[in-house]
Automatic annotation (TrEMBL):
Membrane-crossing residue ranges in chain numbering: 47-66, 100-125, 137-156
Any one cellular-component term (Gene Ontology): plasma membrane
Source species: Schlesneria paludicola
Protein name per Swiss-Prot or TrEMBL: Cobalt ECF transporter T component CbiQ
InterPro entries per the UniProt record, alphabetical: ABC/ECF_trnsptr_transmembrane (IPR003339), ECF_transporter_component (IPR051611)
PANTHER family: SLL0384 PROTEIN (PTHR34857)
């Protein structure tokens, strides 16, 4: 998750850098999509090529300034999903090739994760939105993406406030069923507060003459 913030200017380096060269932004996006296409299209027998793509991606992450500690943390968070997808893929293959497909699917998942991390680090949110506009996507869609990029951070901030409040009332971390119940309560409260915030934001935008499209200012 990106660093918690309240304004575009508070986002970490690589997220708010203003894009002066749209061609470079397009090149970054095309490079990431090309890497994903290569990873997804290579047959399982060419697993050395997948390892090479993963190594190149790790090198790009190092150049972009992402530390090994961050990679390990993101990898641990992503590991359950990758292992689950790999297991499902391996089960669907013949017994002799199940192990190969399991390993290759894990490689593909972790390479895709690394490519996504690199793209977030080198492509700013505003560059990404302007790139969507340049691609002639509907203005309403671009506006929805801009709201998503903004309010997913606010929703995470609200979740952290709720979690800290629950810990303070409980006197410390809980375990077992109490922890699950607290998580369910947080999700319910977060949904209610998110809907309330969305209504208030929509009314405020309409009061200011918003017509459903985003206006970019330097």
């Amino acid at each position: 998750m990106v660093q918690l913030c309240r304004t575009w200017r508070d986002w970490p380096r690589g997220i708010v850098t203003m894009g002066r060269r749209p061609g470079l932004s397009a090149l970054k996006l095309v490079g990431a999509l090309s890497a994903l296409a290569v990873v997804g299209s290579l047959p399982a027998e060419n697993w050395p090529a997948l390892v090479a793509v993963l190594a190149v991606t790790w090198g790009a992450l190092a150049v972009a300034g992402i530390s090994g500690r961050t990679l390990r943390r993101r990898g641990r968070q992503f590991a359950p999903l990758a292992i689950g997808l790999a297991a499902a893929t391996g089960i669907s293959q013949p017994h002799a090739a199940a192990g190969l497909w399991l390993a290759v699917t894990c490689l593909r998942c972790f390479t895709a994760m690394a490519v996504g991390l690199w793209l977030v680090q080198v492509l700013s949110a505003r560059e990404f939105l302007r790139l969507l506009s340049w691609c002639r996507l509907p203005p309403v869609f671009v506006t929805m993406v801009s709201f998503l990029l903004r309010y997913v951070v606010l929703a995470w901030e609200e979740h952290e406030r709720l979690r800290l409040a629950q810990l303070a009332r409980a006197g410390g971390p809980q375990s077992g069923w109490a922890n699950w119940r607290a998580a369910i309560e947080r999700v319910g409260l977060l949904l209610i507060r998110a809907l309330d915030r969305a209504e208030r934001t929509h009314r405020a935008l309409c009061a200011r003459g918003w017509d459903g499209t985003a206006t970019w200012t330097e």
